[in-house]
Amino acid sequence: MAKLNPENGLSSLSQISLMKFRNLALLLVVLSAIAIAGCTTSQHSQQKIVRISADEAYRLIETHKSDPNFVVLDIRTPQEYNAGHIENAININFYDPAFKQKLNKLDKDRIYVVYCRTGHRSDLAMPVFRGLGFREVYEINGGIVAWVKAGYGVVG
Predict the structure, then answer these.
(1) Is 39 annotated as catalytic?
(2) Spatial distance between the Cα atoms of 32 and 30, rounded to a whole number of angstroms
(3) Which of 54, 72, 116, 144 is catalytic?
(4) CB–CB of 156/86 below 8 Å?
């Protein structure tokens, strides 16, 4: 017969059972947390948001020239855009109060190459792209200034 513990009134057998139960409960909580974390796939883990050089951007643009799911996006002001932009680029002004809403209307599953003048605005825009769930975005490091400096042309 098991002896009673005077501190808690439980037999040693009951104490062992209680410890096993607590350990099992803790294990279930931990496993549940792991399972939930593993089952909920974060959209961020499936995103590719990368800063690339002007040379890499040129190669990417050339490779995807005829791909309808590929977009070059100039986020400078309309005045800057009209002064010269990468061929076939579309313009969405970073300073427009509706910038985020305009981005949100774009197809998130397309591939985007994004640039501004020097890379500052595009750098600030990357968290917006990420937050909106864009799948694949490439930011030209140094913007159109780096593009032109690398010897690539503009139109407009």
Answers:
(1) no
(2) 5
(3) 116
(4) no
